[in-house]
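Researcher: Let's do a round of design. I'm pasting the structure tokens now; please hold your answer until I've finished.
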């Protein structure tokens, strides 16, 4: 269930509960029909296919590290991997309606670590007189401002504010790593940064 399909999380959770209930009823019917009935095997087939369909439907909501995201500097790759993991944790908190407190905690952890990463990266760029330092730093600041803007809507519509924040962060992070961050790779590697 992508966010587009499942905009209302309470409705979405109700749908999931309904599917689970239907499956329990289907299993009971299958048991009652016995092993000789084609209905039993049909229901068994449906049960086996559901985890596969669920995986396919949720896969595009979670970020997965790929070597193509590597900037060639291990310390930064490790931080980027951690950021992806924190975004996935936030997505999980949202998807499973874990509650405002847990969602806020996941988001705060993500924003705090993002700031830590930006400080580390900017330090390396500045220490090495990277020519694109200022524009790069400006992109980081813009991202933090945008997240704060989105979250300012939280009191009006928490559900939509949180979903918008995670969607923005996913898209921004992948584009930034693959674009702006990669531009400094060879410059820093030539200066011995690891
Ligand atoms: Fe890895 Fe420029 O953030």
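Researcher: That's everything. Go ahead.
Model: Designed sequence:
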């Amino acid at each position: 269930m992508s966010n587009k399909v499942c905009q209302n999380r309470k409705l979405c959770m109700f749908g999931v509960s309904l599917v689970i209930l239907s499956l329990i009823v289907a299993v009971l019917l299958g048991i009652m029909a016995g092993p000789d009935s084609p209905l039993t095997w049909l229901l068994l087939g449906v049960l086996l296919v559901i985890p596969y369909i669920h995986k396919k439907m949720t896969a595009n909501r979670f970020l997965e590290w790929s070597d193509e995201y590597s900037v060639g500097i291990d310390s930064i790759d490790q931080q980027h991997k951690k950021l992806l993991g924190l975004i996935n944790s936030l997505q999980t908190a949202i998807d499973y309606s874990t509650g405002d407190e847990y969602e806020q905690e996941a988001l705060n952890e993500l924003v705090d670590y993002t700031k830590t990463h930006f400080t580390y990266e900017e330090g390396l760029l500045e220490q090495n007189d990277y020519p694109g330092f200022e524009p790069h730093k400006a992109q980081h600041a813009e991202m933090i401002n945008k997240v704060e803007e989105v979250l300012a809507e939280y009191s009006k519509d928490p559900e939509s504010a949180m979903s918008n924040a995670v969607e923005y962060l996913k898209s921004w992070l992948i584009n930034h790593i693959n674009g702006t961050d990669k531009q400094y790779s060879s410059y820093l590697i030539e200066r011995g940064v690891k």
